[in-house]
Every structure is written in C-alpha cells, then in structure tokens.
Write a structure and sequence with these properties.
mainly alpha; two-stranded antiparallel sheet; 5 helices; globular; single chain
C-alpha cells in the first residue's frame, strides 16, 4: 500500500488514505492482495467494522461504479487542478 498523492503532498481531501501499490507485480504481492481481499470479505460477512483507510475512489472501483472528477480530486488534487 502507498500513500495517496494528497497524503504525500499534504493537500486536499482523504490525506489519511492508502491505495494499492501499482508497482506490486510479484507473486508475493498478488498473494498479499488476495489475503487483503479475503480479510475484507470476512469483515463483511461477520458484520465487523474494520478501518481500511481506502479512498472513496477505491470503493467505487471495487463496486464497478463510474469514477468522477470529484473522486480524482479526493485522491490527487494537483492532477484534478491540471485537468
């Protein structure tokens, strides 16, 4: 997991959030992401609240909802301002 751009630059919203590292491509990393998915599924089935600190953009992508420019602003304010 890596800090969001807003977290690294101390600007905008969702500064406390983390995102999956896009450079994590090894089989070990894939296993870790699989474990994280299992952990999320277990938390949902057990109706147990777990604080994952993932930005709303991540959850929208997980649910298959379309992303908006507001989601980009919540993750990377500098890129939002450029666009």
């Amino acid at each position: 997991m890596v800090k969001t751009a807003n977290n690294r630059n101390v600007i905008g919203f969702n500064r406390n959030c983390l995102l999956p590292n896009p450079q994590s491509i090894t089989p070990t990393h894939a296993g870790m992401f699989h474990f994280l998915g299992n952990l999320m599924g277990l938390a949902i089935r057990a109706k147990s609240a777990m604080d994952f600190n993932l930005p709303p953009y991540f959850w929208k992508q997980l649910l298959g909802e379309p992303a908006t420019f507001a989601d980009l602003e919540g993750t990377d304010s500098y890129s939002f301002k450029i666009l």
